[in-house]
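Severity: low
Component: inverse-folding endpoint
Summary: output formatting inconsistent between runs
Steps to reproduce: submit the following structure tokens with default settings.
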């Protein structure tokens, strides 16, 4: 590897395509291409492709950076975190521009919601770590205190959807707790993370406190999670990859959290505001359905099926597919041809299985990556289209005749990340909300997040929880300091 300062221009924004290790940009001889989903003929950058040695160098840098970062103390670290948050706000438009072109998420959504959330993540944890008081108590003639020590270098592996926001969501508690970090962004959308490295450098982090290694998961990712010097691993992605990471973490006895996607139910009872439920169901098609929390299984009371379907079609027809940079666009392109082919495969297998495609089921335009909002009525709850995560603009529609049947259907997959319930009955909202097995359940709303609340999933939707104190505890080593009464003065 060699130190390299070359950058690329992406719609007027200067971006480094190289790793960030020990406070320096490092280039690899091998590269991989990053292309724009909205125009697959447009290459955005040739990005440095890391390997086992790159990973080793990054972990060594993180070890050195950990010593400096953890020794700064909470107040100095929080000052730097606040400075970083301010820099994110200042550069929000640049970050949004690059991420829009990198993964096709709607530009307005990025500018108004997701990039500002990145700044909020750092501010939230800068405040929370100060408020995260040590527990002190007396017991059996001793004074006791819980001390939270920084754990050490942490590896953070993020997905290709909403990459900037999801990176900051994981980075903020790790850095606030005093850990150094090695971030491995997804190879399909790594460029906004590179901009984050520039801002971290400008904010005054010591060299090695934050590092980025780019490349393929099977190469550099596997090397990072297998390194015995790594003391925490946080991953968002597929259950299949998580199983491999979990084995590597177990071998080194390293705590590991994983958020692994979902197959959330969106339940609409006959006492609900049907129009509101249908409008929210149509909103699940946004971002090309590439949202892990989406309510993709529509469970609707039998008596309101036809009215609900009429309203769902009405709101779905109001969507506009197009360039994600245009304010009128509501439906973005899929991230990558390989991913779109995967979505198409699910729909084609559903057709062959006898599942009914009510609308959609094809691309808007051949040779382009926009897929039509699709609704499928399955022949069975055991159909693949019901049981497996598609991660595209594909919903299923099933009906129920009773509250107990709705709950049974809601809990009938191996996933348990989220659930959405529409009802006007407070007692039903409480009963069903408690009965649905999911890490987050919304009633008459969706995607409203309190950053102090735990986030994670049941079943194959994940291990552990992120958010609030839960993330700070994960990134800390907890120590009990016990002093005999009267033994010291």
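Observed output (run 2 of 3):
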């Amino acid at each position: 590897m060699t130190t390299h300062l070359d950058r690329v221009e992406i719609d007027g924004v200067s971006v480094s395509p190289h790793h960030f290790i020990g406070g320096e940009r490092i280039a690899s001889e091998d590269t991989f291409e990053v292309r724009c989903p909205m125009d697959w003929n447009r290459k955005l950058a040739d990005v440095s492709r890391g390997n086992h040695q790159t990973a080793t160098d990054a972990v060594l840098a993180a070890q050195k950076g950990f010593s400096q970062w953890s020794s700064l103390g909470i107040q100095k670290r929080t000052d730097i975190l606040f400075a970083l948050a301010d820099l994110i706000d200042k550069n929000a438009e640049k970050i949004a521009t690059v991420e829009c072109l990198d993964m096709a998420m709607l530009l307005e959504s990025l500018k108004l919601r997701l990039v500002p959330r990145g700044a909020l993540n750092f501010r939230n944890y800068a405040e929370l770590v100060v408020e995260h008081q040590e527990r002190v108590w007396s017991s059996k003639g001793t004074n006791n205190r819980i001390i939270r020590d920084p754990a050490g270098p942490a590896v953070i592996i993020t997905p290709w959807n909403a990459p900037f926001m999801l990176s900051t969501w994981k980075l903020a508690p790790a850095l606030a707790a005093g850990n150094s970090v090695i971030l491995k962004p997804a190879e399909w959308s790594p460029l906004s993370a590179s901009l984050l490295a520039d801002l971290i450098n400008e904010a005054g982090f010591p060299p090695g406190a934050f590092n980025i290694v780019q490349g393929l998961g099977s190469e550099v990712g596997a090397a990072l999670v297998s390194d015995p010097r790594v003391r925490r691993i946080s991953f968002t992605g597929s259950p299949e990859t998580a199983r491999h990471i979990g084995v590597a973490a177990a071998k080194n006895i390293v705590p590991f959290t994983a958020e692994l996607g979902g197959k959330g139910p969106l339940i609409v009872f006959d006492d609900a505001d049907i129009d509101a439920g249908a409008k929210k169901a149509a909103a699940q098609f946004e971002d090309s359905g590439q949202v892990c929390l989406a309510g993709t299984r529509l469970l609707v009371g039998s008596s309101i099926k036809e009215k609900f379907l009429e309203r769902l079609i009405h709101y779905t027809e109001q969507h506009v597919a197009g360039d994600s940079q245009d304010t009128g666009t509501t439906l973005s392109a899929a991230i990558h041809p390989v991913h779109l082919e995967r979505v198409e495969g699910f729909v084609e297998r559903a057709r062959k299985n006898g599942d009914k495609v009510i609308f959609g089921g094809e691309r808007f335009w051949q040779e382009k990556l926009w897929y039509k909002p699709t609704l499928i009525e399955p022949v069975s709850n055991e159909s693949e289209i019901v049981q497996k995560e598609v991660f595209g603009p594909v919903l299923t529609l099933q009906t129920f005749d009773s509250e107990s049947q709705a709950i049974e259907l809601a809990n009938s997959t191996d996933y348990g990340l989220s659930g959405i319930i529409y009802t006007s009955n407070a007692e039903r909202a409480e009963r069903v909300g408690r009965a649905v097995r999911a890490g987050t359940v919304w009633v008459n709303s969706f995607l409203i997040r309190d950053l102090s609340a735990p986030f994670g999933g049941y079943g194959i939707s994940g291990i552990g929880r992120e958010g609030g104190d839960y993330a700070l505890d994960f990134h800390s080593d907890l120590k009990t300091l016990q002093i005999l009464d009267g033994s010291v003065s």
